[in-house]
């Protein structure tokens, strides 16, 4: 049986170093949400030297636009969105200390190089499990950009949020490893 690493956020540098592409994790702690519109605003603040709505140092961001919550729940369905749209905004955010990004789908080569440069990791949440993911969210607070609706930035308190390390801080790539595993040898 595969081992699931239970981790409390924020992670230490040693914990980030220990994560390998393919590791299954359950995260407990604070995760911020954000998609491309929010990322653009954050980068604009960084570039103009203005204060950010939350501290990016050792932060975790989940690329999601959650649905409204039902009574008795902290959040509605909250499945991952495609992550490649955030790639153009990543370097300024990683320079400010962003360490974990969670979404779905592959990222650019430039992004993967930034993970190595800034000692960060990219994790995948499982698309299609939005209702199950929402059960891990115990508290959800709007912290910035209410005008963006579901794409605003929320502060989530999560317990046992499941993800898979897709790109680790050493440049390993779970997508490429998976493809190679099933490719026919060239003759």
Description:
This protein has 187 residues and is α/β, with parallel strands linked by helices. It contains 6 helices and 7 strands. It has one domain: fumarase. The protein has a 5-stranded mixed β-barrel. The protein is globular and about 55 Å long. The N and C termini lie far apart (35 Å).
| Total strand segments | 7
Number of helices: 6
Task: Quote the beta fraction.
Answer: 25-35%
Task: Provide the CATH architecture.
Answer: Alpha-Beta Barrel
Low-confidence stretches: none
Helix/strand/pairing category: alpha/beta
The pLDDT mean sits at 93
Described by the principal axes of the CA atoms, the overall outline is globular
The fourth-level CATH homologous superfamily is: Fe-S hydro-lyase, tartrate dehydratase beta-type, catalytic domain
Question: Over all CA atoms, what is the radius of gyration?
Answer: 16 Å
Write out the strand line-up for the largest beta sheet, numbering strands in chain order.
2-3-4-5-7
How many discrete domains?
A: 1
Largest beta sheet, briefly?
Answer: 5 strands, mixed, barrel
Q: List the helices and strands in order.
A: EHEHEHEHEHEEH
- In helices, the fraction of residues equals 25-40%
| CATH class identity | Alpha Beta
Which fold name is given in CATH as the topology? Answer: fumarase
Distance between the termini: 35 Å
